[in-house]
Description:
The complex is a heterodimer of chains A (189) and B (439). Chain A has five helices and four strands, in the order H-H-E-H-E-H-E-H-E. Chain A is of the alpha+beta class. Chain A folds into two domains: 2-71; 81-186, CATH 3.30.1330.60. In chain A, helix 1 runs antiparallel to helix 2 and helix 3 (93-108) crosses helix 4 (126-146).
Amino acid sequence: MRKNLITVILVFVCSFSLIFVAGCAKKEVVKSEVELTQAQPSAEETAQQAQAKKEADLREQALKEQALKEKTLAEAAAFQDIHFSFDNYDLKPEARVLLGELADWLLEHGGFEVTIEGHCDSRGTAVYNLALGERRADVAKAYLVNLGVANTQITTISYGEELPADPRNCEEAWIKNRRDHFIVFPNKQ
Amino acid sequence: MRKITGFLIFLLVFWCSSTACGKVYIDINSPAFQKFPVAIPEFKNLGNAGDEDNLSEWFADQLSRFLKITGFFKIIDKGAFLENQDSSGITAGEIDFSNWSSIGSDFLVKGGFGYDGKNLAVEFRLFDAIDGKLIAGKKYWGKPEEKKAMVLKFADEILMALTGGAGVFDTKIAFVGKKDNSSEIYMINFDGSDPLKVTAFNSLTLLPHWSPDGSKISFTSYKDGNPDCYAISPASGTTRKISSFRGLNLPASWSSDGKKILLVLSKDGNENIYVKHLDSGNLQSLTNDRAIDVSPTWSPDGRKIAFVSNRSGSPQIFVMDSEGKTVRRLTFEGSYNSSPCWSPDGTRIAYEGSSNGGFQIFSIGENGDNIMQLTFEAGGGESPSWSPDGRYLAFSSKRAGRERICVINSNGLNLRVLPGIKGVESFKSPSWSRHLNLY
């Protein structure tokens, strides 16, 4: 309403000015009249455009965040198992490399936690393998803590020989099953 | 099987002391033991009624089956029988023993049955077929549905007379049954009958151990996320939490009075052995070592504990006193020895040891001497558990790629694979109950 009133007043003022200056600067006046008549919708448009841009930016930001989140989650899910020798829980050189990458990532992503699952192949005793699986999880945890990852970011659990990655009974399967598996997930806060 | 002792009345028909008393029993646990050859012809119908249920054959077949399961008997094939059943009877005077000794049957079981009102009356006689003498004889009365119990009771009489000890027909074996990523505790009778699911947590449930009175089974389950220790009463299904520290809570053997339980806990970082006093809840630490210490088993007198430790590099069996002191290493042969189980007479410890890339069942004298390898098959053996009379061992072994529960006599002979259970893929970690007075 108020905008309309201003428009009416402005048109009035402009019409009077036109009458006064008509003789000397006709072209300019016409030009300014055009400017005046165009200026009004332009302000509205600017506001709309700004709003749209803001929304687009937000959307883009959200998409970026979503993509980042997805990328982070994908990264979190991509940490590969580390493997061990039979009846052994020493970290192999390649396991140290993988744990180093995991430690760097966890240090960068303080909002994430990791559960380390220790597993064994099916040979040997179920009970002994539960202990062995725990040692395999513990040794990886100690390595991460040594690299500066917070104790509170890491939990461990042993599944012994109970959850094989490959249920077959052959050397190929046993190698896959003697492992630490990492579940990286955003913490609840 | 229902408990029927209250209904079943038995009468001693004859007890011939000349062969039973002062008898020097053959060592049935010796690897050189020769099975007792026994013939069990069809039972006689002594009554006036017909034999629509074919009990003549049923009694002979069931007794043959149970005696065969014990691993101590060679059942003579029916096709070799010479006797004309119609003209012979079931007492010594009515039997021509040369018909039996001549076909290599050192022993003969004769029986007869008839209805006494609603009850079934069954007579059993065990003869020495060489001397033609009665060794043991009993007559049982009971309801017709109690006939299996009558057969089992006389099978016990035969075992008692020839081996000096009754059978373990009234025992059950508990074990883990697994499918995909879920496992439950099951139990089955010694003869492979009546399989029963004990737990239903749809989780990983492991390591059953019978309490000495047979009323409870301890186990570990991940049902609440962490491997916690529980005890369940198979009769009522009531489950009680025993231990739920962070990390492993693994049950091991119970004390013979059932008041204490050995546990493996990793609450302080290393797997160590504890004893939990169930009444007070007190927890007593027995080992405190940086190595892995697991699988403790009490000697029958409760004075010693055998356990597994990798403190010398690889898993080996050690023995300590009940306070965790005076530790000595028991096994020195092989790079991996575990799962010790103390024999009921306290003289030997069964275990699994690595052999040719796999694992086999062994037993060793409690002083570390006289190692015996008991299994040799490609399927190997893991987690041995003694029967309460020490005559058998249950263990798990691979059959066609799947783990099954097997039973052998303590001399390594007479391997028997227990039947599978529908919907279960593999079986392991057997625990043998004490006598449960099932019949």
